[in-house]
Amino acid sequence: MKNKLFKVLKWVVPLLLGAYLVYLPYSSFTDEERTVVYNSIKGADYSYVILSVIMALASHLSRAWRWNYMLSKFKNQPSFLTNVAAIGTGYIVNLFVPRGGEVARAGVIRKTNGISMDRGLGTIIAERVLDLIVLLIITCIALSLAAEELLPFFSERLEVLLNETDIRTLAVFLIVVVVLFVTFYWAAKRFKVFQLIKNFISGLKEGFQTIWTMEKKMLYLLHTLFIWAMYVLMFYVCFHSLEGFDSIALPAVLSAFVAGSFSVAFVNGGFGAYPYLIAQVLLLFGYSEILGTSIGWILWLSQTLLVIVYGLISLMLISFNSRLFGK
């Protein structure tokens, strides 16, 4: 019962947060401002949006190709088409189930090629770690280029947070964390689940290590650079779909890109949070919240539509044409 409740909350809480972040700017806008946002989205130059979507699709295909460099260490290596469908399935599942896409993606290659879940997840985790490193590098670049706009903002928020922090509350929190850890350790040892955990971690480790043992490391790195170049370019290109962003500077683009990227980690598919955070970051660079909200929704809607179409096609391929997959 508790497990079911946790799963429901895991899905509902991010969705409610996203809905609130949709409502927050909407409630602060006047009727006239809401109309401006609607007309901006409706009247955007969608030739740039289409180009942005094509770049995003190119990054997804590159990700599928890159994955095979890691999977080549295992027997029954999946085909490129299998990887494309697995990644598309993972993306659409992530829209509805937080972090469920990674499990779904590993499940596809287990079903089609017999690669165990732990090994498949290990390769995906290794991929995610490398992608996180690239995102952190982009974040550092954005912070260095936009220090004048961003540092005062963060320093103010940090000062407020420190002033409001209760030392006793923090101490109680740390004690609870320690007690929970000790309890878990005792229960795991008593009920002999360590071996199961050990076996699972061993599979993850084997999958993770493929990033160091694969033969084509340089090609893997080049695909990684291409994927992230496409991410940034598709983000930048979309700004040209609206008047008012004709001369937007690189620091503003990178800062908004980082905000949007991290929003996906907290809310399913970045729903609500993605356009909201982009608008808030662009405010720091002198762009109106109306303009920032408009471009945020254009970016989110176009990329989400791509994920839905790509994901549905992937699910249909797996369901009705499973014989196409495999080596």
From TrEMBL:
The keyword Disulfide bond does not apply. Keywords: Cell membrane, Membrane, Transmembrane, Transmembrane helix. InterPro entries: L-PG_synthase/AglD (IPR022791). It is found in: Cell membrane. GO terms for cellular component: plasma membrane. It holds the Pfam family LPG_synthase_TM. The chain crosses the membrane at residues 7-26, 46-65, 129-147, 167-188, 219-242, 248-267, 274-291, 297-318. The keyword Transmembrane helix applies. It is a multi-pass membrane protein. PANTHER family: UPF0104 MEMBRANE PROTEIN MJ1595. This is TIGR00374 family protein. It comes from Nonlabens spongiae.
